[in-house]
Amino acid sequence: MKMLEVEFQTNADKTGLQTFKQLKRDGRVCLYRREKPDGSIFGYEVIVVKLTKAGTTFPNGVVVPEDTESYGGAHSFGRSAYFCSTLQRAEERFKEFVANIGRVVK
Q1: In this structure, which of 50, 52, 71, 81 has its CB flanked by the most CB atoms within 10 Å?
Q2: What backbone torsions phi and psi does residue 56 show, to the nearest 5 degrees?
Q3: Alpha-carbon distance 17 to 25, whole Å?
Q4: Backbone dihedral angles phi then psi of residue 86, each to the nearest 5 degrees
């Protein structure tokens, strides 16, 4: 299985290139810190890792060669992902997700 990266850069929501660093993980629940290019903290994201099975075909025709974990997209926020402006709130969300993983959107 291809695992979700612990650190990566992306312009996920058109706010400019940012670095995402995983601070903790418990099963499929992850807490990431988002950093601006200057190293300052943009915020935190708590997500439930999305699983894609090998052989899945995406709308663009790309076929997934192996089971793959992914971050999910904007559609995940509010259901299986949350943005938090403080680490304290992100830690609370993380605990909630870990405690309720069976009820969180898969």
Answers
A1: 81
A2: -65, 135
A3: 23
A4: -125, 150
